[in-house]
Amino acid sequence: MFRKEALENRKMRWRGRAILLPGVPLWLIIMFCVCFLAAFLTFVIDGTYMRRVNVSGEITTWPRPVNIYSNVQGFIVKSYVTEGQKIKKGDPVYLIDVSRSTHSGVVSDNQRNDIEQQITRVENIIAGLQESKNATLKTLEKQKQQYSEALKFSTDVIRRAEEGVKLMKENMENYRRYQARGLITKDQLTNHVTLYYQQQNDLLGLRSQSEQNALQVTSLESEIQTQAADFDNRIYQMELQRYDLQKERLNADISGDVIVRATSDGKIDSLSVTAGQMVNTGDSLLQIIPESIDHYLLVAWVPNDAAPYIAVGDKVNLRYEAFPAEKFGQFSATISQISKTPASTQEMMTYPGAPKNVQGTSIPYYKVVIKPDREVVEYDGKRISLENGMKAQSTLFLEKRRIYQWMLSPFYDMKHSATGPVNE
């Protein structure tokens, strides 16, 4: 009874009746398979699927906020603005000290003082040349006036002398007739003729003197122009030297203190540095947001394999990181602009949310501007506006194909890899 075989037999013995269920009819299995295959083929042949891709982007305003960076290395000496303050283009924002000091003092200050002294000397030379020019030209003008008056006087004398010579010639002709008639002697005629030719010689001397006066006036006019041009040339040379010194003074000022000015109108959003801090070239100093915002935009970056399938006016879905889709759902938006050329690295660097290409896997990205249909999100009775820099994910809807085409796409790749040269 307690044998090992008996105990094993008791363990293996059934404790109840075994009931076998009837099998599924064959016709039902065949019908189910046919229906399944028909539904599957209908789904694969008639069904379609639209490929979609998720791209990242960030919210920005139009016009965009302005980031001002330092173009020098130095220390912040003074801040002219505070956060929230409205400013105009060209207003001073920061004063940066970029000077260097030695045992003799601040290098830029010493250079500036030396240049100022040189400029003062040059200006004194220019003033002296101007005075010399005025005095010289005044003297020459005075001489010209004297010779002009002498020329005028000699001209009048010559005119009167010509009238006298004309009268003497008429008298000489009368004396010739008188001598022919025997009224006067030949000696009287000879004296009168001699007197006439003497007056002619005197007239020639007066004309020579008048011509000398005219030549002197012409010479003085030429000398006035020459002297004026010479003085102007010397003054111009000194002015060029002063201009060079002024440029050196400007360079000295640049090497001393640099004033950073606002590049646009707006309101100070944030100040990155304060007085006493050291800044390097390229460090961010402040941000200026536009005073009037026209609208908000989402700037997304689409890879080249998706860019051909989208167009302006297409609808897209947005999901903001600040407003999780699990709670707020997705938001509708419309594509308003698509770039025709890939975005440059410099342009993408101006957007913090732009994708970063890993070395060796450079991918062309196209800039796509998306306009949200709603710029305000309502939550808990509040209206929350979109803000600059908000990151968002956008779902773009691309090409639409039938299901079997998507299933057979690997075979298309095999076909293309095995196809020879294409002759169209």
Automatic annotation (TrEMBL):
<keyword id="KW-0812">Transmembrane</keyword>
<comment type="similarity">
    <text>Belongs to the membrane fusion protein (MFP) (TC 8.A.1) family.</text>
</comment>
<keyword id="KW-0813">Transport</keyword>
<dbReference type="InterPro" id="IPR006144">
    <property type="entry name" value="Secretion_HlyD_CS"/>
</dbReference>
<dbReference type="GO" id="GO:0016020">
    <property type="term" value="C:membrane"/>
</dbReference>
<feature type="coiled-coil region">
    <location>
        <begin position="112"/>
        <end position="178"/>
    </location>
</feature>
<dbReference type="GO" id="GO:0009306">
    <property type="term" value="P:protein secretion"/>
</dbReference>
<keyword id="KW-0472">Membrane</keyword>
<protein>
    <submittedName>
        <fullName>HlyD family secretion protein</fullName>
    </submittedName>
</protein>
<keyword id="KW-1133">Transmembrane helix</keyword>
<dbReference type="InterPro" id="IPR050739">
    <property type="entry name" value="MFP"/>
</dbReference>
<dbReference type="GO" id="GO:0055085">
    <property type="term" value="P:transmembrane transport"/>
</dbReference>
<keyword id="KW-0175">Coiled coil</keyword>
<feature type="transmembrane region" description="Helical">
    <location>
        <begin position="20"/>
        <end position="45"/>
    </location>
</feature>
